[in-house]
Amino acid sequence: MKISITEKGPKMYIYLSGDLDHHEAKGLVRQILDRLDTSMPRDCILDMSQVKFMDSSGIAVILRAHKHMRELGGRLWVENVPSQPMRVLDASGIDRLITISSLS
Amino acid sequence: MKEINTMSIQFPSKSSNEAFARGAVACFVSQLDMTLTELGDIKTAVSEAVTNCIVHAYPDSIGTVYLRAKLFEGGIVEITVRDKGRGIEDVERAREPLFTTGGEDRSGMGFTIMESFMDTLKVRSKLGSGTTVTMRRRVDRRTGSGK
Ligand SMILES: Nc1ncnc2c1ncn2[C@@H]1O[C@H](COP(=O)(O)OP(=O)(O)OP(=O)(O)O)[C@@H](O)[C@H]1O
Ligand SMILES: [Mg+2]
User: Fold this and answer.
1) What is the CATH number of the domain that holds A77?
2) Among A24, A75, B34, B81, whose Cα sits 20 to 30 Å from the Cα of A10?
3) Closest CA to A49 of A82, A21, A22
4) What residues pair up with A79 in beta bridges, in sequence order?
5) For residues B49-74, average pLDDT
6) Phi and psi (nearest 5°) for B85?
7) What is the tally of structural domains in chain A?
8) How far, in Å, CA of A28 to CA of A10, rounded?
9) What mean pLDDT value characterizes chain B?
10) If you average pLDDT over residues B12-32, what whole number do you get?
């Protein structure tokens, strides 16, 4: 799992790539939350276009980042989700809470 | 049901084996002709069951995870994931969406995902002696038979 972050004004883009499972998620949450605290963006966009595989461990990562953005008074949404991760997100019903768009 | 092929592996409950486990199953079941979506669903279900052994069955130690895959005539894949860990107190409750004993790191969706991605899911567990998860999925073979 690789993560790269860019900021454009009040927007922070987090690009995830590789497999998002329990093994990879362990350090990822801390990394994302720390960065949100330092930069305090208004909007955070999680870009998943390069995620090759995701299981329920990824749901917890997205939910925690979303909750943290709320606490900071900002918003988070998820973009460019490929089909396998999208099936996992669909099954979880997380789209009732967070705006998610699939990779076209 | 007539069995065509079977494989089993066992490995220590290290998180680095999660990718290995789902990858090994994906390789094995690929001898049945199936769509990428079906293969993805099976990999996801395996990842959920194996991660549960690593996170919940052996929370503070390294134990052994036993994984078996079987192929049956008619395009049926059966996956069994077994541990000798701490077991589940109330299986029915554990299978409910959002139920978790894992705190903020978990979402409580593992069993729900296994259930929705596979055709059947059976969970047998005994406190203190371990858990066995058996799931089946029929895949849509487009051509030929599983040779
Ligand atoms: N192999 C196991 N051994 C012991 N307890 C288990 C096992 N598998 C599941 N459980 C229990 O069942 C609960 C529900 O499991 P489930 O996979 O649905 O959610 P989770 O693992 O808590 O979260 P997620 O899978 O979304 O990361 C777990 O929190 C745990 O208490
Ligand atoms: Mg789980």
Assistant:
1) 3.30.750.24
2) A24
3) A82
4) A47
5) 97
6) -90, -150
7) 1
8) 22
9) 95
10) 98
Identity at A69, one-letter amino acid code: M
CATH domain B3-138 topology: Heat Shock Protein 90 (3.30.565)
pLDDT given for residue B146 in this prediction: 43
B107–A63 C-beta distance less than 8 A: yes
Contact A22 B116 (CB under 8 A): no
- B84: enclosing H helix or E strand: none
Residue B141's pLDDT is 67
Ligand in nearest proximity to the CA of A56: 1
Domain extent, residue A42, equals 2-102
pTM reported for the whole predicted model: 0.96
Q: Please tell me which residue of chain A has the smallest CA distance to B108.
A: A56
Show residues of chain A in contact with B18, CB under 8 Å: 21-23
Q: Hey, is the C-beta of B129 within 8 angstroms of any chain A C-beta?
A: no
Residues with CB under 6 A from ligand 1: A 56-57, 60; B 48, 52-53, 56-57, 83, 85-88, 94, 99-102, 106-111, 131
Place of tokens 């930069």: A39
Question: What is the share, in percent, of chain B residues with pLDDT greater than 90?
Answer: 93
Domain residues of chain B, as ranges?
Answer: 3-138
For residues B26 and B112, give the distance between their C-alpha atoms in angstroms, rounded to a whole number. Answer: 21
- Nearest Cα neighbor of B88 from B45, B53, B112, B120 is B53
Residue A97: per-residue pLDDT = 94
Q: Is B17 a catalytic residue?
A: no
Cα gap A3→B126, rounded to integer Å = 40
